[in-house]
Amino acid sequence: MTQKPQDSDVAFIRALAELLRENDLTELQVKRDYGESDSLNVRVSRAAPPVQQPILPVANPAPAPAAAPTAVVDPGPAVAKPAPAPNPSDDPNAVTSPMVGTIYLQAEPGTPAFVSVGDQVSEGQTLLIVEAMKTMNQIPSPRAGVVKRILVDDGAPVEYGEPLMVIE
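-> structure tokens emitted (168 positions)
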């Protein structure tokens, strides 16, 4: 028994949805041509992950067993918590991705990275490569400065506008 065209289309759409999930993408659009006047246009997208809400207490919790009295210990002076790390996307010196794709920090596997933390770079110097649709796009430095942080890993997927590195 052969599959109906609709069955293969459903399998194709399921495969696209799986590809979307595996690569942590938010949207994927594909056009599949079957002939001159027959095609399938598919766009699969997903919403951003929901923000985790705090767990609320249960209205009627089970009574806690009676506990033996305990001594209260003075913890001493409060210890200041370190300030949270600044968000790299808020940094005006962040270099952001101009497209969705895959990041490569070197020209070929096994070769040195284009730049490393602490390197002095000049305006227009290649910082990394973003592969998008099988095309390697060199990302130039928008200004001269020193590479302070590299925020992405080699081979990692990136979204448009995602901070890649900080140059001061």
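The chain is about 10% helix and 30% strand.
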